[in-house]
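U., I forgot to send this yesterday:
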Amino acid sequence: MSDERAWKQYICRACGLIYDEEEGDPDSGLAPGTRFEDIPDDWECPLCGVTKADFEPFERREPVEAVAIETGPCRTGVVVVGAGLAGWAAVEALRALDRELLITLVTACDGDRYHKPELSVALSRGLDATELVRESGAEAARRLGVQLLARTFVTGLSPDQRRLRTTRGTLGYTGLVLALGATPALPEALAPQHCWRVNDLAGWGGLQRRLADGPARVAVVGAGMVGCELAEDLARAGHAVSLLDRHRYPLASLLPVTAGRRLLESQRALGIAFRAEARVAAIEALSSGERVLVLEDGERLVVDQVVAATGLVTEPRLARQAGLDFESGIRVDPKTLKTSAPDVYALGDCITIDGSPCRFIEPLARQAETIAHALLERAHPGYVHAVPVVRLKTRGLPITLHGRPTAEGEWITLSDDLRALYMEQRRDGEVVATLRVGAASGAA
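Result:
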């Protein structure tokens, strides 16, 4: 008997990858047409490695054929700033509700669509920038009926006049969506001309081209999530990696010491040289093209390339110039994602909700849907923020964190063997986070 149910999609709460029942996952043995309920419980996300339990239903959007819109300087509509995952999510959500809405997308890059979490695992897979692009910006703009202003920079915003100033002229808008993303936070010692920042396709592509000729010595400064993922990816691609951090163990801001030790052992097994409590004082460029990292204790480390993975910050210039409330990011209403200015909304890496940055992939579709309904004055229950699953994309030692650990909480070890470490954090007798380090098993 044939199954005539509509195909469904499910989204990974850790990295945002979407499993489509119609397409399946042939690389891991799931044929096209495999229903989600028929997937084995130990199947893993092909990108980040979490199991089936960390996927949730995703509302499938049918392709929309947009009506050709006549554009011009006198026409106004919704303007979206930023063509990353957040910006395109906003465009998709708006177009799904209104086929004739004038949408203008302003971006400093070409607007090409790619899945950003893939950047930290792509080198060892032998991919280049063109292979990571799923759809060019121009193609996406044509498909969605969007006026794309690529290679265009925003120079100012006047909310009272509903005017956005750009390097290609001033745009009026009826609604504005800010999807500005976040930029690498570079300490003063890490001069930008001497180090790579792998925060977008352009930065990753530049590093990939420099490493294409063969094994190189690479220093990764910062052992947070991105730094640890990049260090393993570089090591698996055949490069000699030094990972530097000011803490005693990698991922120290997120993991308890017991888990940090396991991660350190895994990195050493891959040949990664972890330099604990190391602070870079300066980077010197040699005539040979090499770089010298001068550490505060006087040690000098000679490498071929330097990668900065020292966190992200939201650039405040535009928000402050426009008078938007700003607190480590653009402050938005937790339910509507509206900024302090009329008809101006924001989503993704550039926002803070209740004082906390929201730099996760999984919530973007829900944020975009909330904003689209608000701008088009459609009924909607509002956005509800939930802490996504955190998954370190390291094959050597999978790490999965549920919940939000706090500095005041106490970590308790539930089980600890050669295969996996299970811990939970309790605060005032209540479990606030659970942690799995290592391969999944039934011993949780």
